[in-house]
């Protein structure tokens, strides 16, 4: 009996497949580069090219050095690039040193503040919060909005949504955005401020980084899909409480508090289940 003939894909089809199978690790760097280019060309969101380059260079150097020293391997640099460029976009300071220091703090946190095999803070979120707390008189954070020209925002949201969907993390972004709008309505009802004013912050470049990178970081999110959705709802809720108390950098601090708490709780539940299966009788056993 003759064997069925299998058609051989054409070279052109194979090239298209290679494009569509683009390494997912490079998708986030592509997106954040687009945010930088579109945002800066439209509204000049960068403090300066030199300071952003410094943040990226220090981030990459710290990643290489710590990865080699601690694990003896050459780390993939996509995460370091994202961290460096995030610092370059989000930080504001007349001096250059905060950009380098923030990147160094961010990357170091990945290797020092860990539980089991994962770091518990998103690196750029930790670095930005540390700088705002320790050097608040020297630094600030990006607060530029897209203004009346919505096309840059629409372009970034479309590209970002496609990328996080491909990375199977769109549910995190979508849930947070829905919660943000719900709590914006609540804040408007409580304070009497116009709803548009409460919604406006999410249209800015800072929030593009927040919703597509900080809250979706695979290493600092819980494992279950439902758990991730609950966590970002809690982030939006804590952010609302902070905003009602006039905390300027509410989203950073909300994620700083809620994200690690969720990971530590998940780790404790894992430990508790494991102790139950091995017959442990309690903490002191």
Question: What this model shows, in words?
Answer:
- This protein has helices at residues 11-20, 27-43, 49-71, 78-90, 97-112, 123-134, 151-166, 170-191, 195-199, 205-214, 225-244, 250-277; strands spanning 91-92, 114-115, 118-119, 140-141.
- A hairpin with a 2-residue loop joins strand 2 (114-115) and strand 3.
- It has 2 domains: 46-141, no CATH class; 151-271, no CATH class.
- Strands 1-4 form a two-stranded antiparallel ribbon. It has a two-stranded antiparallel ribbon with strand order 2-3.
- Helices cover 67% and strands 3% of the residues.
- The longest helix is centred in the last third of the chain and has 28 residues, at 250-277.
- It contains 12 helices and 4 strands, in the order ααααβαββαβαααααα.
- The protein starts with 10 loop residues before the first helix and ends in an 8-residue tail after the last helix.
- Helix 4 (78-90) packs across helix 5 (97-112).
- With 285 residues, the protein is mainly alpha-helical.
- The model is unreliable at 16-20 and 280-285 (pLDDT under 50).
Summarize the SSE layout with pairings:
Layout lengths: L10 H10 L6 H17 L5 H23 L6 H13 E2 L4 H16 L1 E2 L2 E2 L3 H12 L5 E2 L9 H16 L3 H22 L3 H5 L5 H10 L10 H20 L5 H28 L8
Helix pairs in contact: 2-4, 2-7, 2-10, 3-4, 3-5, 4-5, 4-6, 5-6, 6-12, 8-11, 11-12
């Amino acid at each position: 009996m003759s064997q069925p003939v299998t058609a051989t894909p054409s070279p052109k089809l194979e090239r298209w497949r290679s494009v569509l199978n683009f390494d997912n690790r490079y998708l986030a760097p592509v997106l954040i580069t687009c945010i930088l280019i579109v945002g800066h060309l439209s509204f000049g969101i960068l403090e300066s090219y030199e300071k952003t380059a410094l943040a990226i260079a220090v981030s990459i150097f710290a990643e290489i050095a710590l990865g080699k020293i601690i694990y003896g391997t050459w780390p993939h640099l996509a995460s370091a690039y994202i961290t460096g460029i995030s610092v370059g976009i989000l930080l504001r300071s007349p001096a250059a040193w905060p950009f380098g220091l923030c990147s160094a703090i961010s990357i170091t946190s990945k290797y020092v503040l860990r539980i089991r095999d994962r770091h518990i803070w998103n690196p750029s979120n930790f670095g930005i919060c540390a700088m705002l707390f320790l050097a608040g008189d020297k630094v600030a954070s990006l607060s530029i909005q897209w203004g009346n020209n919505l096309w840059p925002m629409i372009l970034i949201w479309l590209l970002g949504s496609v990328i996080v969907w491909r990375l199977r993390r769109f549910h995190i972004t979508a849930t947070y955005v829905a919660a943000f709008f719900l709590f914006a309505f609540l804040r408007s009802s409580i304070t009497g401020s116009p709803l548009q004013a409460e919604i406006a912050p999410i249209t800015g470049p800072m929030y593009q980084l927040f919703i597509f990178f900080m809250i979706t970081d695979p290493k600092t999110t819980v494992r279950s899909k439902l758990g991730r959705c609950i966590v970002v709802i809690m982030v939006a809720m804590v952010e609302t409480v902070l905003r009602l108390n006039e905390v300027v950098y509410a989203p950073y601090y909300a994620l700083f508090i809620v994200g690690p708490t969720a990971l530590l709780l998940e780790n404790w539940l894992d430990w508790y289940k494991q102790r139950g299966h091995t017959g442990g009788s309690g903490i002191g056993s």
